C-alpha cells in the first residue's frame, strides 16, 4: 500500500490523500450549514410488542437472576425482618449518589481502621438465632449467629457486632465495661476475648465491636457453633451496691427481648446484629452474565439493520429505561429499590457530531466518510461512555438482609464510537 493512501476498515477500497482532503474541506463547510443535517425528532417506535413464550421468559429471568448472583428467587414465605441499620446504609448510599462529592463504596461503609487490599462490595447482616436466653449469674449472655448463607469463597474484610444502648435517666449516670468473647469450645468453656469497650453515655446509641477474627474462624471451621458471649460489668460501684439497680443499668445494653416487646420492632431496631463486609465475586463473572453479554453482541448486527428501516432519530442521546422489580414479581425479597432507571443510548452518530457526544477521532472520520459514502461503511454507534453501579437491599435464601453494590447497571452518559 502506498504512503499516500488510507484504508477504511481494512477493506481493499482506498482513498487517496487528495480525496480525503476534499472530504475534510467539505466537512468544514458543513459546519456553517448544520440545518442540512437536521434529524427527525421522532422517538423510537413504541408500538413494538415483544411476545415471549414461557420457556424464553424463564430463561431471561434465570439470566437476570444470575446477574444478581442468584440461581432462584428466595422463597416468598420467608419472614422478612429488615434491620434499621441496613435501611440506613442503603439510604446513605442513595443520598451520596445525589451529592456532588460522591465517595466510593468502601469509603462510605468501611468504618474500620485496618487497611485492606480488597474493597468490600457486599454487606451482610445476621440477627441472632436466640435472643430469649437468660443471662448467667456473672452477667454473661450467649448469642448464636448462623452464617451458613455466607459464601465460603467470599473474603470477609471487616465484621462488627452492633449492640443497642437505651437512654438512661440523667440521675442514673453509669459506667459499664462490655466484653465480647468468641466461643472456641462451648462444652469445656473456652472463650477468647476479641474486643472490649467502656460505655459511659446516658444517651441512646449503638456500641460497635470488631469481631472480624471470630467471623473468619466461623467461616473456615464448618463445625464452629458461631457463638459470641457478651459480658456486661458495672464499673465504679462498690460490691455491696444494690443488685437490682445494677441489673437495670446493665439491661440498657440490649442483648435480649423482653416479654412485652413486639417481636418485629425489637429485631429491626434493638436486637444485636452482626454485620459482615465482604468481597463477593460470585456475581461479577457468572456464566449467566457472560451468556447475556454474548447474546447482546450477537444481536448487534440485526439491530443495526432494523435501525436502517426506522426514521432517522435525533443525535445520540440517553433515554429512560425503567426496570421495575415489582413487575417481575420480586418485591417479596427485594427491599429497595422498587425500581431503578437503567437508561439506554439511542440515536444517530452523523457528521457533524455535537461536542457533548465525546466522539473519538476515529468516530469523527468514520461518520464523515459515511456521509459521502454511506454504502462503504456504517455510521459510528451510539454507545454508553460512562456506566455506574446501583445498590440493592434484599433478603437471601436464609432470610438474612444483604446490601450489595452491582457494577455497570445504569448508563450515565452516551457518546459515539
From TrEMBL:
<feature type="region of interest" description="Disordered">
    <location>
        <begin position="282"/>
        <end position="317"/>
    </location>
</feature>
<protein>
    <submittedName>
        <fullName>Bone morphogenetic protein Bmp2a</fullName>
    </submittedName>
</protein>
<dbReference type="InterPro" id="IPR001839">
    <property type="entry name" value="TGF-b_C"/>
</dbReference>
<feature type="domain" description="TGF-beta family profile">
    <location>
        <begin position="295"/>
        <end position="417"/>
    </location>
</feature>
<comment type="similarity">
    <text>Belongs to the TGF-beta family.</text>
</comment>
<keyword id="KW-0325">Glycoprotein</keyword>
<keyword id="KW-1015">Disulfide bond</keyword>
<dbReference type="Pfam" id="PF00688">
    <property type="entry name" value="TGFb_propeptide"/>
</dbReference>
<dbReference type="InterPro" id="IPR001111">
    <property type="entry name" value="TGF-b_propeptide"/>
</dbReference>
<keyword id="KW-0964">Secreted</keyword>
<feature type="compositionally biased region" description="Basic and acidic residues">
    <location>
        <begin position="282"/>
        <end position="294"/>
    </location>
</feature>
<keyword id="KW-0732">Signal</keyword>
<dbReference type="InterPro" id="IPR029034">
    <property type="entry name" value="Cystine-knot_cytokine"/>
</dbReference>
<feature type="compositionally biased region" description="Basic residues">
    <location>
        <begin position="295"/>
        <end position="315"/>
    </location>
</feature>
<dbReference type="InterPro" id="IPR017948">
    <property type="entry name" value="TGFb_CS"/>
</dbReference>
<dbReference type="GO" id="GO:0008083">
    <property type="term" value="F:growth factor activity"/>
</dbReference>
<dbReference type="InterPro" id="IPR015615">
    <property type="entry name" value="TGF-beta-rel"/>
</dbReference>
<feature type="signal peptide">
    <location>
        <begin position="1"/>
        <end position="38"/>
    </location>
</feature>
<dbReference type="Pfam" id="PF00019">
    <property type="entry name" value="TGF_beta"/>
</dbReference>
<dbReference type="GO" id="GO:0005125">
    <property type="term" value="F:cytokine activity"/>
</dbReference>
<keyword id="KW-0339">Growth factor</keyword>
<dbReference type="GO" id="GO:0005615">
    <property type="term" value="C:extracellular space"/>
</dbReference>
Amino acid at each position: 500500500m502506498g504512503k499516500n493512501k488510507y484504508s477504511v476498515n481494512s477493506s481493499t477500497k482506498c482513498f487517496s490523500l487528495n480525496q480525503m482532503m476534499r472530504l475534510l474541506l467539505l466537512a468544514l463547510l458543513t459546519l456553517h450549514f448544520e440545518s442540512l443535517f437536521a434529524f427527525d425528532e421522532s422517538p423510537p417506535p413504541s408500538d413494538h410488542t415483544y411476545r415471549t413464550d414461557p420457556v424464553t421468559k424463564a430463561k431471561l429471568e434465570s439470566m437476570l437472576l444470575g446477574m444478581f448472583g442468584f440461581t432462584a428467587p428466595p422463597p416468598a414465605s420467608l419472614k422478612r425482618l429488615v434491620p434499621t441499620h441496613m435501611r440506613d446504609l442503603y439510604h446513605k448510599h442513595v443520598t451520596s449518589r445525589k451529592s456532588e462529592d460522591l465517595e466510593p463504596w468502601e469509603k462510605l461503609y468501611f468504618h474500620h481502621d485496618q487497611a485492606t487490599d480488597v474493597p468490600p462490595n457486599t454487606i451482610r447482616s445476621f440477627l441472632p438465632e436466640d435472643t430469649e436466653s437468660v443471662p448467667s449469674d456473672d452477667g454473661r449472655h450467649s448469642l448464636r449467629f448462623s452464617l451458613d448463607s455466607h459464601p465460603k469463597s467470599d473474603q470477609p474484610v471487616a465484621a462488627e457486632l452492633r449492640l443497642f444502648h437505651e437512654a438512661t435517666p440523667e440521675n442514673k449516670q453509669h459506667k459499664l465495661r462490655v466484653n465480647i468473647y468468641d466461643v472456641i469450645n462451648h462444652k469445656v468453656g473456652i472463650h477468647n476475648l476479641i474486643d472490649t469497650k467502656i460505655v459511659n453515655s446516658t444517651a441512646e446509641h449503638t456500641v460497635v465491636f470488631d469481631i472480624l477474627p471470630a467471623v473468619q474462624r466461623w467461616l473456615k471451621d464448618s463445625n464452629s457453633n458461631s457463638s459470641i458471649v457478651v459480658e456486661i460489668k458495672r464499673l465504679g460501684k462498690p460490691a455491696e451496691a444494690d443488685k437490682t439497680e445494677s441489673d437495670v443499668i446493665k439491661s440498657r445494653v440490649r442483648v435480649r427481648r423482653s416479654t412485652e416487646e413486639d417481636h418485629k420492632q425489637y429485631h429491626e431496631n434493638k436486637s444485636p446484629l452482626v454485620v459482615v463486609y465482604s468481597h463477593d465475586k460470585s456475581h461479577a463473572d457468572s456464566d449467566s452474565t457472560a451468556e447475556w453479554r454474548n447474546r447482546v453482541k450477537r444481536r448487534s448486527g440485526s439491530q443495526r439493520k432494523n435501525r436502517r428501516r426506522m426514521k432517522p432519530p435525533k443525535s445520540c442521546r440517553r433515554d429512560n429505561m425503567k426496570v421495575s422489580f415489582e413487575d417481575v414479581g420480586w418485591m417479596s425479597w427485594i427491599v429497595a429499590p422498587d425500581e431503578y432507571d437503567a437508561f439506554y443510548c439511542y440515536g444517530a452518530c452523523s457528521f457533524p457530531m455535537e461536542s457533548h457526544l465525546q466522539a473519538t477521532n476515529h468516530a469523527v472520520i468514520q461518520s464523515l466518510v459515511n456521509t459521502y459514502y454511506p454504502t462503504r461503511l456504517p455510521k459510528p454507534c451510539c454507545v454508553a461512555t460512562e456506566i455506574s453501579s446501583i445498590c440493592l437491599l434484599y433478603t437471601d435464601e436464609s432470610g438474612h438482609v444483604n446490601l450489595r453494590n452491582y457494577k455497570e447497571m445504569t448508563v450515565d452518559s452516551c457518546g459515539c464510537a
